[in-house]
Amino acid sequence: MRRLLPLILFATIVAASCIASATEPEIAATGDYQKLCGVCHLPDGKGIPGVFPPLNERLGHWANKEDGRTYLVKIVTQGMSGTIIVDRQKFSGYMPAVAMQLDPAPLAVLLNYVLLKFAPEIDVEPYTAREIERIRSIVVRNTRDLRPQASS
Ligand code: HEC
């Protein structure tokens, strides 16, 4: 056993680092979600009725439209306020620009994570860092004006 110990340790380290590299972006995105979004929209994305809207499949529908993709990026980088109706419930809250400091690459990973986790049934083109950069350079004064109409 004694002679085997270094071997076991080595194998454990190799295995651990493989696991870490395979899921590193996902681990980072989970952490970013919990820290930046989960405090309000909750870890399961269900939100709080009338206070924090749920994150659900409508996000996936938006991610399949140009203005919807812009909307999702602008919400998290510029924040939003004003009344919205989600699943026939009214929300008149204020969301701060929580991801303002995030670089394009981790922000792409975070939004892709949100879409995959809360709108798994919708097939979506993943965001890339380059797309995030392009959208961030678009000047939008009121995020809410971008909210796609045909949504709940
Ligand atoms: C401090 C609380 C808070 C945090 C943190 C927060 N949000 Fe929000 N979010 C809100 C509120 C409140 C609204 C509704 C704003 C309104 O009524 O205009 C909202 C709205 C949204 C909407 C738009 C819903 C719709 O139907 O138009 C999306 C999408 C969203 N948040 C995603 C996120 C994501 C992703 C994160 C993390 C990167 C996040 N939010 C972090 C409070 C928060």
Comma- or semicolon-separated keywords:
9% strand; 6 helices; Cytochrome Bc1 Complex, Chain D, domain 2; 152 residues; two-stranded antiparallel ribbon; 2 strands; mainly alpha; binds heme C; globular
Describe what you observe in this structure.
- The chain is mostly helical and 152 residues long.
- The chain has one domain (4-146): Cytochrome c-like domain (Cytochrome Bc1 Complex, Chain D, domain 2), CATH 1.10.760.10.
- The protein is 52% helix and 9% strand.
- It is built from six helices and two strands, in the order ααααββαα.
- It has helices at 4-36, 38-41, 57-62, 66-78, 104-118, 129-136; strands spanning 80-86, 89-95.
- A two-stranded antiparallel ribbon has the order 1-2.
- Strand 1 and strand 2 (89-95) form a beta hairpin.
- Helix 1 packs across helix 5 (104-118).
- The chain is globular.
- It starts with a helix and ends in a 16-residue tail after the last helix.
- The site of heme C (HEC) has 27 residues, from helix 2, helix 4, strand 1 and strand 2.
Regions with little confidence, pLDDT below 50 for 5+ residues: none
CATH first level: which class? Mainly Alpha
Radius of gyration: 19 Å
- At CATH level 3, the topology is Cytochrome Bc1 Complex, Chain D, domain 2
Principal-axis shape equals globular
Bound molecule kinds, no repeats = heme C
Summed up, the helix count is 6
Q: What is the helix/strand order?
A: HHHHEEHH
- How are the strands of the largest sheet arranged? 1-2
Specify the biggest β-sheet: 2 strands, antiparallel
Total domain count: 1
Mean pLDDT: 88
Q: What helical percentage do the residues reach?
A: 40-55%
